[in-house]
Structure formats: C-alpha cells, structure tokens
C-alpha cells in the first residue's frame, strides 16, 4: 500500500498555457537486480531516441521550427525578461509538450503570442551557424519558409505528415483496399509503418519507416540500443521478443511485427516490460498510420497482488452479488491485469501520458492470443499527489472529516474501485437465453458502465475487502462513496459547457448513480445537498444505507441488461443521467474557474545515473528526479536529435 501521509516528494515541476508539468517517481527501482536495471537503461535510451520521429510525423515543419526556436532560446543574449521573450519561451514549451505546433489534445495549431518582427530580430541577432540552414540557405530563406507556418493561422491549421504528394483520402483508402484479402483471418496492419507518397507521374507508393528507409537516422540508433539490451533480457522469451522487434525495424515487415506482438502478449513472466514502435493510429484521420511511442516499465508486485486477489475470488463475488440468481454467472473466468511502474516515457507517451495501456491493437491477435492490460499506478499516484492541496477538494468537500478520509484512503479506494470495475464488474452477469446483446441500443454503454461501477461500489463496503486484505479499514470505503457522489452530483459538471447536456457515457453513468441514490434516499436524508455561504456541498448522512441503495440499483440495472428491457433502461438514463440543473452548473463552474487549475497535465522523466567502477563496468544505476522541464527538453534535443532539422524543400 502506498503511504501518502509521509510523501513529501514535490510533484509539481512547471506550469504554462493550459498545462501543468509533474514528475513521477518509480518506487521499487532500487530493489531491482543490476541486470534488470541495465535492461531498463538500454530500453530507456531506445525510448528517447524516437522523439524526432514523432515530431516529423505530426508536421513536416516541426523539427525545423523546434531547432530554430531552441537556437534562439539558447543563444539570444539580449533582454530575456520582456513580455515577448516570455511568450516565446511559452510557445517553445508548448511545442515541446505537443511534439509540434499543433495542440496535443485538440490538434489545432496554437498561436505564438509574439509578433513575427520580434522573432525576425532575434534570429538575426544570433550566429547563423546555430540555425538549421542548408549550405546555400540564408536566414531570409528560413524566415520565408517558416514564418507563414508559425504565424499565419490559415497555413496548416491541422496537419500530419502521413501522406505526401497531394494524395487524397480516397486514393489512400483505395491503395490499401486493393491489398486486403477479406478471407485472410490474420491480416497484417496494412500501412501502419509508412508514409504514403504520390510520386511525379502519379504513382503511389509506401515509404517505409525502417532502417535503410524513412527515419533510418533515428531507427538505426534504436536498433543498436535494442541490441545492447539483449544480454540483459530476463529470459529466452524476452530475448526473442527484442530480436523480433529488431528484425521488424530492419525489414519493415508487418508479419514480423505481428509475430513480435504475439510473443510479447504471451510473456507474462518478465518483470521488466516495454513498448517501442509505431503503435496507435489516433493521429491519422484515416486510422491507418501509427505514431511512434515507447514506455519502459516493471511490474508493481504489491499492487498486482491486489488485482490477483480480486481475480482469484471472482466466483465468490459473483455468487454473492445482490442481483437475481437467474442473472448470475455460474462459472466466472478469471481476468488478469497487472499494475506497472513506468521509468521512461517516449514519443507519443511523453510528456502527456496514458494511465492504462491495453495492447496489441490487431483484432485477430486479441481474439486468438489475448491482450495485456496494465494500469500505470505511479502515474495515477503522481496525479493524486499533485491534486492534494491544489485547493479542489478544499473547495468542494463538505468538512474536515471527509477531507481526512479522502486524504488517507482516497487513492487506494479509487484504484480498488477501478480494479473491481474492470476485473469483475464488466465480466459479471449473464443475458437470459434469446436476449439480443444490442437490445439497449444507444443507452447500452451508459448502462454497462453503470453496472460495472455499481458492482465495484457495492463490494467496496463489503467485509470481504478487509478480510482479503484489500482495504486496511472497514470505514475506508467512505472515501470512495463520498468522492463518487460529489463527482456525480457536482464536480464533473466543470467539464460540461454552459447550456449543454451530459453526453459522454462515463459521465452519464456517474450522474445516473448519484442522482438516483440522492432521490431514492431523500425520505431518509441518506444524501443531502447543503448550502453554506451560498455554495452547494454533498453531505452523506448514512453510508450503510447508501450501500443498500447501490445494491437495489445494481439489481435493477442487471435485470435490465439480462432481460434486454430497453424501455426501463431508457427511462433510467433519461430521468437521471442527461439533464443538468443550470443554476448548480453555473455555480460549480464558477468555483472551479476561481481555482485556476490546468486542464492538461504531463510529465518529465527521471534521469538515469550510471555508476561505474575503475574498470568502466556499470555497478549500479540510480534514478534522479531533479531535472527541470526546460532542462530535460533541451538535453533531449542535444542528445537525441537524429533526424535532419532542415526546412522541407
Ligand atoms: Zn468500464
């Protein structure tokens, strides 16, 4: 169990625009063997070496702009305190964060915040040798190419570099449609690892990302680093996995990539694990091309014990759930999920980071070989710690008693609720014979999330939690109950624009549960909305009674699902999940705005410090957490800039 009580680590690193930068810790790293640390070290180097690839994938001007601004930022000798320089610094920090000039979340190009004349003057004040100029190129050439992209809102307002030469989406789709064989039960991920280019004369061809191909300048050092990692592999399987990845990078062969993924998904033994490659296709509107990303991690054995306890007792939970016996599963298949600690984030996982990963993506591999589902708990821990004392709970929580309970148990109960939701909730229950799985139609995902959340909430307060050692205190569940109801009735409204309804399924499910429990407990005042100084707060008067309300609603939602009762499901969603009280909504948004919190957060990585003996052999590796955001970004640009920084011709 993590101990937030004596955690004095400072998680906050930097803040600019709409972003806060945090650092994460990797507890347990020191207890790994030297061999494991060396494996992690080489995989981490490989994780950082692909940074330029992502910049170039997002927009072909990104690298030239980053290098130009870094040169100015590093070499400019004039006034660094004035408003324009501060804006330039913020702009550069945003580019580092978004891996380019387009917002990491909304994908729209962001404005520099300083005039073109200012950058023009700064560029001419530094030595041209610091700038990414080709032999014959002048500063005027550079300005002529880059300034429209930086300063003109209509130039590349959204962009990617996955298609070149004026290919239309239709041409790209046709190109791949022709290659696909609908009868192939194990198709490769067509087009995943290449730029599609229309050449002079109109011929369309793939420029594959591999050594000897596109991005070879970055992929060669990655491959070299993976080879360095081989002797430190934990076992033959892992060594074989790394060998397959190397072969894939060297050939670009997507069959090899599939073979690599199958080996990777089957390795549940190695303690150290990693992702390195062209993985997710969110950045391509056609969903074909994958951005480069990497993470390096090791298993959090203690937290994984929690998910293992839950899976091994899955049948007990199913047998004791408060739903009609006819709707229970007679035989529950154990679900496995592990909890990991990341030590390095790279490419599209950096600085903005996922908190869970479920790979590989190929449907047939998931079907035939399964997938690995992980929770990155040192990241959720850092988020939790950074949120303590940011004023949010102090603003919205009713009294010190609830604040204290959340401070002590909130992180633990939140993770446990997620585990119960994922490992048990979704997998519980059955459909009665003949019921259409799509019977609940457009409300099915809201009701499904409701069901999984209620399953978790119900068991959170069960004595079985302390008996199994999942909770230290039979009262701990109150932290989750309070936060859940507060979020469902009040605080999640900060993410809804004024005048809008709740649309997203998870948000609907939370309000459904909170509103339903509020109304059905009203006679007994189980939950109250109390006013103090014109501010609204949630007060829970009777926690055990709240649990029985959750049980009643779970039984009903399970019945709706098992019987496919569309009308009842629709009524639940429409009555409780969608509409927002405008006055309350306005109040909550106003209180939130006054806190001035950053809506987006990301991370700096630790620095790996290698200790060598007099023979030059590595004797230990430590993690250092003191690097600043700007310091890290400039260091990465110095040490891991492999791709050409010139402007596109
Ligand atoms: Zn879910």
Structure description:
It is a single chain. The protein contains 24 helices and 15 strands. Strand 11 (527-532) and strand 12 (535-540) form a beta hairpin. 39% of the residues are buried. Helix 1 (34-48) runs antiparallel to helix 8 (216-229), helix 3 (62-75) packs across helix 4 and helix 11 (301-312) crosses helix 16 (400-425). The model is unreliable at 1-6 (pLDDT under 50). The protein has two domains: 12-149 and 629-639, no CATH class; 271-601, no CATH class. It is of the alpha+beta class. The strands form five sheets. Strands 6-7-8-10-9 form a five-stranded mixed sheet. A three-stranded mixed sheet has the order 1-2-13, with helices on both faces. Strands 3-4-5 form a three-stranded mixed sheet, with no helix packed on it. It has helices spanning 34-48, 51-58, 62-75, 83-98, 116-125, 139-151, 169-179, 216-229, 236-251, 254-266, 301-312, 314-319, 363-369, 377-387, 392-396, 400-425, 444-460, 463-467, 477-489, 505-520, 543-563, 566-576, 582-595, 629-639; strands spanning 12-16, 19-23, 163-164, 194-198, 204-208, 272-280, 291-299, 338-347, 356-359, 372-376, 527-532, 535-540, 600-604, 607-612, 618-624. The longest helix has 26 residues, at 400-425.
């Amino acid at each position: 169990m993590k101990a937030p009580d004596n955690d004095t680590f400072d998680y906050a690193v930097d803040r600019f625009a709409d972003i806060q930068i945090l650092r994460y810790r990797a507890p347990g790293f020191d207890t790994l063997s030297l061999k494991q640390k060396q494996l992690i070290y080489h995989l981490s180097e490989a994780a950082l070496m692909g940074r330029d690839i992502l910049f170039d994938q997002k927009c072909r001007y990104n690298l030239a702009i980053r290098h130009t601004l870094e040169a100015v930022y590093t070499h400019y000798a004039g006034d660094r305190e004035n408003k324009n320089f501060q804006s330039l610094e913020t702009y550069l920090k945003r580019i580092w964060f978004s891996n380019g000039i387009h917002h990491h979340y909304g994908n729209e190009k962001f404005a520099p915040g300083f005039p073109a004349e200012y950058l023009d003057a700064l560029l001419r004040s530094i030595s041209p040798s610091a700038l990414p100029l080709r032999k014959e190129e002048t500063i005027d050439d550079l300005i002529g190419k880059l300034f429209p992209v930086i300063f003109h809102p209509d130039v590349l307002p959204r962009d990617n570099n996955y298609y070149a030469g004026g290919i239309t989406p239709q041409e790209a789709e046709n190109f791949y449609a022709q290659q696909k064989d609908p009868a192939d039960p194990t198709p490769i991920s067509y087009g995943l690892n290449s730029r599609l280019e229309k050449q002079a004369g109109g011929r369309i061809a793939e420029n594959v990302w591999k050594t000897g191909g596109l991005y070879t300048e970055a992929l060669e050092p990655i491959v070299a680093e993976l080879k360095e990692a081989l002797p430190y592999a934990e076992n033959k399987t892992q060594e074989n996995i790394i060998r397959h990845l190397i072969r894939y990078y060297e050939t670009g062969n997507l069959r090899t990539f599939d073979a690599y993924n199958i080996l990777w998904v089957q390795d549940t033994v190695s303690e150290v694990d990693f992702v390195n490659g062209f993985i997710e296709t969110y950045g391509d509107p056609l969903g074909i091309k994958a951005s480069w990303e990497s993470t390096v991690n090791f298993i959090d054995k203690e937290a994984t014990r929690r998910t293992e306890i839950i899976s091994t007792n899955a049948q007990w939970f199913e047998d004791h759930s408060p739903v009609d016996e006819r709707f229970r599963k007679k035989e529950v298949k154990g679900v496995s999920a592990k909890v990991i600690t990341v030590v390095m984030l790279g490419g599209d996982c950096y600085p903005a980071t996922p908190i869970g990963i479920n790979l590989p993506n190929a449907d047939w591999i998931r079907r035939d070989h399964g997938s690995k589902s992980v929770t990155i708990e040192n990241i959720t821990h850092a988020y939790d710690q950074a949120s303590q004392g940011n004023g949010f709970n102090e603003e919205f929580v009713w009294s010190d008693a609830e604040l204290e309970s959340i401070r002590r148990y909130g992180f633990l109960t939140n993770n446990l609720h997620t585990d119960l939701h994922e490992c048990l909730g979704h997998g519980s229950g059955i459909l009665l014979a003949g019921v259409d799985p799509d019977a609940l139609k457009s409300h099915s995902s809201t009701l499904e999330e409701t069901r999984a959340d209620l399953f978790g909430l119900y068991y959170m307060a069960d004595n079985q939690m302390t008996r199994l050692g999942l909770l230290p205190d039979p009262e701990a569940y109150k932290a989750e109950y309070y936060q859940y109801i507060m979020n469902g009735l009040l605080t999640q409204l900060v993410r809804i624009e004024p005048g809008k309804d709740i649309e997203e399924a998870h948000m609907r499910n939370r309000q459904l549960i909170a509103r339903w429990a509020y109304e059905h407990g009203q006679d007994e005042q189980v939950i109250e909305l109390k006013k103090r100084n014109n501010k609204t707060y949630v007060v829970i008067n009777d926690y055990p009674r709240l649990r029985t309300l959750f049980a009643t609603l779970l039984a009903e939602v399970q019945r709706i699902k098992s019987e496919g009762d569309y009308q009842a499901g629709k009524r639940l969603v429409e009555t409780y999940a969608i509409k927002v009280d405008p006055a309350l909504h306005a109040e909550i948004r106003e209180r939130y705005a006054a806190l001035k919190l950053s809506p987006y957060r990301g991370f700096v990585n630790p620095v790996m410090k290698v200790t060598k003996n007099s023979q030059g052999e590595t004797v230990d590796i430590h993690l250092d957490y003191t690097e600043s955001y700007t310091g890290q970004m400039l260091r990465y640009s110095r040490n891991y800039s492999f791709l050409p920084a010139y402007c596109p011709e």
